[in-house]
Amino acid sequence: MRKIYCIGETVYDILFQNGKAVESRPGGPVLNTAVSLGKLGEKVYVVGDQADDVIGNIIADFLAANNVSTKYLTLYNGAKSRMLLAFLNDHNEPSYSFYKIRTDDEIKITFPEVRHEDIVLFGSFTSIKKEVREDFVACMKKARENGALIIYDPNFRPAHIKLRDKVIDYIYENISLSTIVKGSNEDFQNIFESSTAYAAKDIVNNYGCINLIYTANKYGVNLFTGDFHKVFDVPRIDPVSTVGAGDNFSAGLIYALIKENVYAADLDNLDHDVWRKIIRVAIDFAIDVCMSYDNYISDDFVIDYVMNGRIKEC
Q1: Residue-by-residue DSSP string for 20-65
Q2: How far is the CA of 254 from the CAs of 28, 83, 192, 249, in angstroms?
Q3: Is the separation of the CB atoms in 176 and 207 below 8 Å?
């Protein structure tokens, strides 16, 4: 069975609407992706670090309950957990405030040995954190050498812009280590000040990755490969929350790549119809998550995809 390694931060999310806290739950981009994949029965690991406090234990228990391995999750005794406050506007689109982990321990993450059949998703702070950079890059280079499928999702939010000049070289290297770069129009605007999908594609290609998936909310999904460019429409919906939409697009992307038996070596010559199926599944995952406050796919959605075999029709 192919293994999926989701490298990044776990956090605890608190959602606000009209000035009041309305929901709270474990979150963070890689956790959201990993939980959806775990619910689907995939062999998935979260790779990162977190506090060994009450919130950290809630997160760890939640991961275990959703079939996500914490084998590569470093715990810091006496630390305080990361928190994310998401403030939903009138369109239920979030703006964020982040609160970093607080620990006196040395920052240390144990990275896995990634094989050619495995899939890696990475992004956010862990991928640009100086303290773990050397070990992280060594892991990614070895994974790339072994032929693994590597997906980079920057998750670079407006609050991160002040760090851009300090970490831009890390971001360029992350692109070069990837076989697919997937990000939102907001990510690429915040990182590169690029306002179009084509501008983002040129930058990503220039740093060594030919496969770009550029999501733009209701304006659709742009797929760029070495052979073609395709725009996929996104159905209009009335979302409850879009907090986990991008993360579950990633989950759907990974799930479809596995079900279509796609490996890194296949990407250069992947058929248009296979790509269509993959992107449509990713969009389905994102839409489902938008219909509730949860950051992960619903149980009904899991039944529809797994038991009813919906993916075969996409």
Answers
A1: EEEEEEEE-HHHHHHHHHHHTT-EEEEEEEEE-SHHHHHHHHHHHH
A2: 17, 26, 26, 9
A3: yes
What is the rounded CA–CA span in Å between residue 272 and residue 228? 9
Confirm if 185 and 214 have CB atoms less than 8 A apart: yes
Dist CA 119 CA 251 (whole Å): 11
Q: What is the CA radius of gyration of the chain?
A: 18
Question: What's the predicted TM-score (pTM) here?
Answer: 0.94
Query: Structural domain tally of the chain?
Result: 1
pLDDT tens for each residue of 153-186: 999 988 789 999 999 999 999 999 999 999 999 9
What span, in angstroms and rounded, lies between the C-alpha atoms of 9 and 73? 10
Q: Find tokens 């971001």 and name the residue.
A: 171
For residue 224, give the amino acid letter.
F
Distance from C-alpha of 119 to C-alpha of 30, rounded to nearest angstrom: 13
Q: What is the CATH classification number for the domain harbouring 60?
A: 3.40.1190.20
Query: Residue 136: is it exposed, middle or buried by C-beta count within 10 angstroms (0-12/13-18/19+)?
Result: buried
Question: Over the stretch 239-255, which tens digit does the pLDDT of each residue have?
Answer: 999 989 999 999 999 99
Residue ranges making up the domain that contains 160: 3-313
